[in-house]
Amino acid sequence: MAPPSRFPEEQEQDGCAEAALDKDRGPSVPQKPHPGAARPTRGGGGLLCRYIIGKKGETKKRLETETRTSISIPKPGVEGEIVITGQQRSGVISARTRLEVLLDSFRRRQPFTHFLSVPLNQPAIQQSFLHFKEEVLHKCSKDHGVSSSLFQNPAKLHLTIGTLVLLNEQEIQRACDLLQQCKEDFVDQITGGQPLTVEVAGVEYMNDDPAMTDVLYAKVHMKDGSDRLQMLADQLVERFVASGLMLKEWDRVKLHATVMNTLFRKDPTEERSNTMPGKSSFKERESFNGQNILKLFENFHFGEVQLDSVHLSQRFSSDASGYYATSGQLCFS
Questions:
Q1: Alpha-carbon gap, residue 124 to 245, rounded angstroms
Q2: Each residue's pLDDT tens digit, 254-264
Q3: Alpha-carbon distance 169 to 174, whole Å?
Q4: Contacts of 177 (CB under 8 A, 6+ apart)
């Protein structure tokens, strides 16, 4: 048997192939058969390793048997690569592909831990939001399901770009590094190195029936009428999806700020991500009748705001200002 290689394409004729997966960064998949061409993709750390092994090792054994490979996984707490070795290149590639599918499935099963957010909690916006809340409760409190518990915490008003499942410190650092790379690659070009002026105005609902509303949101758009904020959000999602740290749910990011949410009724710390439908669908929710709110506040003006950063925000957290704790951020200027 020839010595194993980390580049299976080079070993097709030698009768032995090997592929490596960093357990914190995912499969190392060569783009071209030459040293240094490995491309790290998705990873999941110790939790992922246990998921790959399965109960009593059944998942790992089945993969090895069906692909005629040997899968070597580092022991818990030990950093290193998951290595797939086999006699046939096709078997190694099959095992690697199936592990990537397993990883996608694993990540989809996890609740999101972080999200890319744009803060909209400047004092003037908070003040307008509190006025909105006061007026809604004054005029619509008798409508079914409407109560003060539905409203967002004004200190946490934000625009969600996308959600992430980051399973260890290495993935958090990867996300921070990727944000900075995005700044260099396209964000500076879109923003011109200056804050983006947006208007937060008008309200809309997420579901089909306004009489059975679960999420009411404020609309966010560029004051100059351009699509620069949309371009920035969409390109960030595209880059993070390509990295494997984010799952693509929609073709375009919906630019909005949640102002009322039925999930807040029972859990005021819940951060709703409308890019991940179904994540919270198992929770009981009591819808509210939003018909009058939509009629009376259809064009409510929350104000203008200068957007100057994108945050890698931690779910279920708060910093000294009351906003979400930040693991990293990208500044426009």
A1: 34
A2: 999 999 999 99
A3: 9
A4: none
Token pair of 256 as six digits: 């909005």
147 vs 129: CA distance, rounded Å: 15
Give the 3-state secondary structure of the chain: CCCCCCCHHHHCCCCCEEEEEECCCEEEEECCCCCCCEEECCCCHHHHHHHHHCHHHHHHHHHHHHHCEEEECCCCCCCCEEEEEECCHHHHHHHHHHHHHHHHHHHHHCCCCEEEEEECCCHHHHHHHHHHHHHHHHHHCCCCCCCHHHECCHHHCEEEEEEECCCCHHHHHHHHHHHHHHHHHHHHHHHCCCCEEEEEEEEEECCCCHHHECEEEEEEEECCCCCHHHHHHHHHHHHHHHHCCCCCCCCCCCCEEEEEEHHHHCCCCCCCCCCCCCCCCCCCCCCECCHHHHHHCCCCEEEEEEECEEEEEECCCCCCCCCCCEEEEEECC
Residue 186 has pLDDT above 60, yes or no: yes
Q: Which of 70-74, 102-106, 231-235 has the largest mean confidence? A: 231-235
Reply yes or no on whether the pLDDT at 271 is more than 60.
Answer: no
Instruction: Express each pLDDT in 22-48 by its tens digit.
Output: 444 444 333 232 222 222 333 445 666
Order of strands, edge to edge, in the sheet holding 196-205? 256-261, 215-222, 196-205, 301-307
Residue 129 has pLDDT above 80, yes or no: yes
Which amino acid, residue 164? Answer: L
pLDDT tier at 107 (50, 70, 90 boundaries)? Answer: confident
Q: What angle do CA 166, 172, 178 make, to 5 degrees?
A: 110
**How far lies 246's CA from each of 34, 39, 161, in Å?**
29, 17, 11
Q: Does the global pTM surpass 0.85?
A: no
